Amino acid sequence: MRGLTRHHLIPQTRHSNRRNKRDFDRSDVKQRIARLCRPCHAHVHATLDNKQLEREFNTVEALAAHPEIARFVEWIGQRPDGTRVVFRRWNAP
Questions:
Q1: Which phi and psi (to 5°) does residue 21 adopt?
Q2: Residue 34: which H helix or E strand, with range?
Q3: Helix axes 67-77, 38-47, angle to 10 degrees
Q4: Strand runs (DSSP E) across the chain, as ranges?
Q5: Which listed site, 3, 52, 53, 91, has its alpha carbon 20 to 30 Å from 18?
Q6: For residues 33, 39, 43 and 49, what is the CA-based torsion angle, rounded to 10 degrees?
């Protein structure tokens, strides 16, 4: 089994954001944690920026519903444990 990492569903860099303080209870912000394998965690951060994570993808269900993330999870699930993946973040024109 792959080692799991802690993913803050509301990124730590966004915890002090005014909108975040209005929309979420402080304890909820700190406890919204997902356990993700390293390749999936890296893919989430390569695909979405922190503002998107905070506002639209702050639950495991929302992350799983994102088409690129769902496609990657399916793909990596077919690979042997320890598979290394290199990500390059890019912005489409």
A1: -65, -35
A2: strand 33-37
A3: 160
A4: 4-8, 33-37
A5: 91
A6: 40
CA dihedral over 49, 66, 19, 8, signed as positive or negative: negative
User: In whole angstroms, what is the distance from residue 84 CA to residue 31 CA?
Assistant: 29
- The model's pTM: 0.78
Contact, 72 vs 46, CB < 8 A? Answer: no
55 token code pair:
């506002």
How many contiguous H segments (helices) and E segments (strands) does the chain have? 6, 2
- For residue 5, the cross-strand partners are 36
pLDDT tens figures, 35-78? 999 999 999 999 999 889 988 998 999 999 999 999 999 999 89
